[in-house]
């Protein structure tokens, strides 16, 4: 598909980024470890992780703003490791908009184009295209001080896209905005990225933002990319305790792997035996952890009430139940620890102090190595 905003009409394959074995040390401390990553052309890829995990460092390395220790960066098959930032054909958007205060919206958008000697009707045409793409036409003669934070960020986005970069790098661009505006502008960024057919690499520590925006995401911890996949894939099949916990609430149970069947891997949790998602590399007899999201679990008053397709995992006591509109959030406990279950709001609200049986949909729980 091509659009008036496309990077190069008819060529939607621009912007593949390959990070190959990149390591980075700051003052003798390794902050990025032999990192490999391929971001496909036209993809919206998010680097998600807690503060200090190395997201910004990796983004700045792709941008050419940091001298790193080893490894290489390629864009569209060409090694750019030694190429200065301005020759990499990338656009940036940061948390602080960094607009020129004395220039209007149009002039801010035109700035980089003028530096590249774009002039006359060609310049006016491109600025108009960007004003249309970012829906800033009505504000084109205003100065940044006369704009809201969200509008300023759209100008920054437009300015970054004006030169048709191969790759757009965004570092927490919604960080300074309130929650409502974050959602609205997040959708706008996604629309603009798709219409302009630009590869986007986006840094955030907010998992909701990552889910909404990304085609795929990489979850980072302590200088490693721990898992890469589509948001739903990473949420429902985390490969470690860290990823499971970072991407939302989860319940964990100490377990022992018993064996493998076509349908999944059988595990023992206390007195119960149940089938989790297949993990063929887990040896029978290994100690492991079973992880299930709050919405994968049902509650019944006794074993006879476990719904079909579900398997019991624990006898527990309800400690708290709260109505949340769309769901009922129930906290439970047994001698091993506490749990969280989200029930459909049409179900009865359990009484604190009452006994319950937790059951998990067969084959849906994930087995994690216990070292995580
Ligand atoms: N210029 C620098 N000199 C020394 N250490 C640095 C430098 N820049 C970053 N670091 C360290 O490198 C690690 C990774 O930092 P980075 O900014 O990439 O993390 P991040 O995941 O983007 O975090 P945040 O979400 O807080 O921005 C941190 O431990 C940080 O303190």
Automatic annotation (TrEMBL):
Keywords: ATP-binding, Nucleotide-binding, Transport. GO terms for cellular component: ATP-binding cassette (ABC) transporter complex. Residues 17-247 form the ABC transporter domain. Its EC number is 7.6.2.9. GO terms for molecular function: ABC-type quaternary ammonium compound transporting activity; ATP binding; ATP hydrolysis activity. PANTHER family: SPERMIDINE/PUTRESCINE IMPORT ATP-BINDING PROTEIN POTA, SPERMIDINE_PUTRESCINE IMPORT ATP-BINDING PROTEIN POTA. This is ABC-type quaternary amine transporter. It comes from Leucobacter luti.
